[in-house]
Design a protein that fits this description.
The complex is a heterodimer of chains A (158) and B (248). By secondary structure, chain A is of the alpha+beta class. Chain A has four helices and seven strands, in the order ββββαααβββα. The chains are: A alpha+beta (158), B alpha/beta (248).
């Protein structure tokens, strides 16, 4: 179960909003305008089960998200969901991977401290013996041009 | 019955003798006749794999999906503590300090090594560069990339990090690293074809204990590392999925 964000973890001036994850699960979000730059040369890697529950994260995921590994394992991947991300982007993600295809997009992720970081995300289904058993998501550094395009575009998709 | 062993064509020439010695060690340990075959390039090697002419391979991660999922190869081991990382470098006199400052149309030198090329392109992507807006100059080896950079015949070089690190200090002083990958989970692997599947556990055990005696240690040293580490099936599947997400 995804808990509300905790005020004591938030760094800097924040805004408050309640997100309805998966259309029905409310989560109180505190978010700030503080961006953490994507580190050069690194990949953020995670895997989830079919329901989107995190089963593996690498060290870069831990460092960029601000959560401890034990807080991330068994948490829904939507723990990273930022209120500036339009729901339609994630609908497109799930529609694509459920068809067995690769999804790519520029995503603004929410940190434990309320800050954010931009990534270029790629998600693929993990197929073992012909069955989808989960998903692998790999994030890399996005170009600033692409990020700026999304900063303009995403507010129009709500 | 005779088997054929091959090595990814991106191996360093420094270790050529080492691979021949390793093949001899493998024949003695397994009691099998194993022919060591080298291919000039990746395409020639892939053709041989498709024709089922290869039984053991020290494979580039780029070819792992094809080997495992199309040809039924099984992973055995990887070089302990060694992963495939790439470096983006420019001439030391180049004022550029960050990939984001590179311009479209630049000349990028790279070897045919497919995973290093891929990792390098991912790092250039952060500067809005891709195959469509750069000039790619393929070089036969990393020394030629260095030469082209120093002579200003290219603007950027993509190197296997290990190859760059092994350059002399004098050479490195003439170059400047813009970015070094820190991926950690992409690596070459020694694999066997389904023909040898029944002997997998036995061969794996031989390799994993190779560093326990002086003779085995010397062979490993001639390959540039100290020990083999086991690669589980799921670890290989994970790397194949990861590579799949990275292929642009």
């Amino acid at each position: 179960m995804l808990q509300d964000m905790q005020l004591e973890n938030i760094v800097g001036e924040y805004k408050e909003v309640t997100l309805n994850l998966y259309g029905s699960i409310p989560r109180k979000i505190y978010y700030t305008d503080i961006e953490t730059p994507y580190p050069d040369g690194k990949l953020i890697v995670s895997t989830t089960d079919k329901a989107g529950i995190i089963t593996h994260v690498n060290q870069s995921f831990v460092e960029m998200s601000g959560y401890r590994e034990e807080e991330l394992i068994n948490a829904p991947h939507s723990i990273l969901r930022h209120p500036d991300m339009p729901a339609v982007a994630f609908k497109d993600l799930w529609d694509t991977v459920n068809k067995g295809a690769k999804w790519q997009g520029i995503v603004k992720n929410l940190r434990k401290d309320g800050g954010y970081y931009w990534v270029k995300a790629t998600v693929i289904p993990n197929i073992r013996n012909g069955q989808v058993v989960g998903y692998t998501s790999v994030r890399r550094k996005p170009s600033r041009t692409k990020v700026n395009e999304c900063i303009q575009l995403y507010p129009t998709l709500f | 019955m005779s088997y054929t062993f091959t090595v990814s064509p991106d191996f360093s020439p420094n270790y050529l003798a080492g691979w021949y010695i390793f093949n001899t060690w493998l024949q003695i340990q397994t009691g099998e006749a194993i022919h060591f075959e080298l291919y000039d390039d990746f395409q020639a090697q892939r053709t041989a794999i498709q024709a089922n002419q290869i039984d053991l391979i020290y494979a580039n991660p780029f070819d792992a999906a094809m080997l495992v999922r199309e040809k039924g190869f099984l992973p055995l081991v990887k070089a302990e503590g060694i992963s495939d990382e790439a470096i983006i470098a420019v001439n030391a006199n180049n004022p550029v300090e960050d990939v984001a400052q590179l311009s479209t149309g630049i000349r990028v030198a790279v070897t045919e090594d497919p995973d290093v090329h891929m990792i390098g392109m991912i790092m250039l992507e952060a500067g809005d560069l891709d195959a469509s807006n750069i000039q790619t100059c393929f070089c036969n080896n990393h020394i030629l990339i260095v030469k082209n950079l120093i002579q200003d015949k290219v603007d950027v070089g993509i190197f296997l990090a290990k190859a760059f690190d092994d350059l002399s200090n004098l050479t490195k002083k003439q170059l400047k690293i813009l970015v070094r990958s820190q991926i950690s989970v992409i690596h070459h692997s020694l694999m066997i074809s389904p023909k040898l599947a029944e002997r997998r556990t036995e061969i794996q055990a031989l390799l994993l204990s190779m560093n326990n005696d002086d003779k085995g240690k010397n062979v490993l040293n001639s390959l540039g590392f100290n020990a083999w580490a086991k690669v589980e099936d799921e670890e290989m599947e994970f790397m194949i999925d990861l590579m799949d997400t990275l292929i642009i």
